[in-house]
Amino acid sequence: QDILHYDLAIVLSDTSVAIEGVAAIRYLVRGGAGPLLLDFDPALTVDSIRSAEGRLTRAEAAARLLAIPHWGAVGDTLQVTIFYHGRPRDGLVHRPNAHGVPSVFADNWPNRARHWFPGEDHPSDKATVAFVVDVPRDWRAIANGTLIAVDTLADGRTRWRWATDSPIPTYTMVIGAGRMAVTPLASTEGIPQSVWTFPQDSAYAVEGPFRRAAEMLSAYATLIGPYPYSKLAHVESSTRFGGMENSSAIFYAEGSYRDQS
Questions:
Q1: Cβ 12 vs Cβ 39: under 8 Å
Q2: What's the DSSP call for residue 216?
Q3: Can you say how many angstroms the Cα of residue 32 is from the centroid of all Cα atoms in its chain?
């Protein structure tokens, strides 16, 4: 199998660590008659699985794998959609940030994306990804790629839509959500940059560590090569291990903002 694309829809709460998720996965059949094997934490509950034609199918849970029968031949491109819910025990960190306010940030390195969405959780299998992140009304949500839309729902919650056009590994497929201040920076090399922080840390971040971010991107583009993604967001985060080089949405540990170091 070769995963080509993920459509991931995640519903987040500010009062519970539980999530609701839908993962539509498009993949290429490389060979053999075996099932589609997806890494997925059995701590989450699979509600149903459907084929692209809407047919219900079943998966067998084997340790940390979902084994989904596929019905295509070698060379076919197929899609399955998995509906699930539960409390991620890793990979998606839901906890109060340094200011005591609830926030949610993915922390997938090296193979912990499986704890909150099913997939091929190995850096060798890159794919494009689109996120739909449903959050409380006073939250914002960041993810990889380009912001497609922000929809306001009937209950005041918002739905943030992000999508990549470049394949990336699962360990850098991330979302971050909470009460965030967003400050646009100067565009460099045609790439928009922004700083996402907890509101209390916005002034420090913009006037301090990211004041020369535009110049830095230009310098790296000259030294290394063109920046490969559609945007660059610098995101203060509350995660398990700290900073992470996520594709187009770099997460920085909140401790440096708190200490202003």
A1: no
A2: H
A3: 31
Q: What is the pLDDT of residues 190-217, one digit of tens each?
A: 899 999 999 999 999 999 999 999 999 9
Cα 236 from Cα 178, distance rounded (Å): 11
| Nearest CA among 100, 105, 74, 250 for reference residue 168 | 250
Instruction: Give pLDDT tens digits for 182-195.
Output: 999 988 878 999 99
Longest CA span, the chain: 57
Can you tell me the distance from the alpha carbon of 164 to that of 247, in angstroms, rounded to the nearest whole number? 9
**214 three-class SS:** helix
> Count of CB atoms within 10 A of residue 227's CB?
18
Alpha carbon distance 141, 226 (integer Å): 27
pLDDT of residue 61: 54
For 41-139, strand residue ranges (E) read 45-51, 56-57, 60-62, 65-68, 77-86, 92-96, 102-106, 128-135
Sheet containing 102-106, strands listed edge to edge, beginning at the edge strand earlier in sequence = 92-96, 102-106, 175-178, 140-143
- Side-chain-side CA neighbours of 78 within 13 Å: the count stands at 21
Rounded Cα distance, 139 and 105, in Å: 13
Q: What are phi and psi of 221, to 5 degrees?
A: -60, -35
pTM: 0.94
User: What is the predicted pLDDT for the residue at 187?
Assistant: 85
Number of other CB atoms surrounding residue 216 within 10 Å: 12
